[in-house]
Design brief:
single chain, 250 residues, alpha/beta, seven-stranded mixed sheet, 23% strand, globular, NTP transferase domain-containing protein, nucleotidyltransferase
Length: 250
């Protein structure tokens, strides 16, 4: 793959809800079917050179870096949201002017083909930002992708803020993005922690880019299965079951 694409993998979380007796690991090092969650993600990103994949680490970061020593890393300390996490990778990407894929170390079911389709859509449409989305009939607590009358991306509405009409939208924001580097840094510079958590949300960046006249698109090629992240012991067990099924052992 050409060096016009770099990836930022968010891997700083503690995984408080995953804490179980005798297990003291960062979230991305928790194992599903005998393998760290982050290992699955990095395998699906193997179409990129390792030097082009930046791990944003935080909690117990020495363990994450020791487990994956061949990847550059950036430190997020303290952890102040997804927008802040990407901002922490800025120095590691200094001088880079291409496309930045932002994804998560706790989403081990995402397939290489899905990442590549997102990148291809981004390139084909000439976007400054492209969101990965999933169409699902399940009632899932994800933000909704609102499109205008011509089918173009308009905004993201968080699940808790949806009107009944917006709640009925089936296209969901997965949280995985591709940005052009310049518009990304400009947008992150404008983020403000105007929310109950006092955090900097990456979900605010597409709206800023759009408001400034940039091109923002959404690529609905993700499946509901792929978008499953691991935050609880139950979700970890669910992921393990899907991994086994994919390998013909479920």
């Amino acid at each position: 793959m050409e060096h016009t694409i770099k990836a930022v993998v968010l891997a700083a979380g503690k995984g408080t809800r995953l804490r179980t007796e005798g297990v003291d690991l960062p979230k991305v090092l928790r194992q599903a079917d005998g393998r760290p969650l982050l290992g699955y993600v990095l395998e699906e990103l193997s179409f990129l050179d390792r030097e082009d994949v930046v791990l944003v680490v935080g909690y117990d970061r020495e363990k994450v870096v020791a487990a994956f020593p061949d990847y550059p890393h950036a430190v997020q300390e303290p952890q102040q949201g997804t927008g802040h996490a990407v901002q922490c990778a800025r120095q590691a990407l200094e001088g880079f002017a291409g496309s930045v894929l932002v994804c998560y170390g706790d989403m081990p079911l995402m397939r290489r083909e899905t990442y590549e389709s997102l990148l291809e859509t981004h390139r084909r449409e000439g976007n400054d930002c492209t969101l990965l989305s999933a169409v699902s009939d399940e009632e899932l607590p994800y933000g909704r992708i609102v499109r205008d009358g011509e089918g173009r991306f308009a905004r993201i509405v968080e699940d808790k803020d949806c009107t009944p009409e917006e709640k009925a939208i089936r296209e969901l924001n997965v949280g995985v993005y591709v940005f052009e580097a310049g518009p990304l840094w400009q947008a992150l510079d404008q983020l403000r922690p105007n929310n109950a958590q006092g955090e900097y949300y990456l979900t605010d960046a597409p709206a800023y880019i759009l408001a400034k006249g940039g091109r923002v698109g959404a690529c609905p090629t993700c499946t509901a299965e792929e978008m499953l992240g691991v935050n609880t012991v139950e979700q970890l067990a669910q992921v393990e079951q899907i991994v086994r099924r994919r390998q013909g052992r479920g």
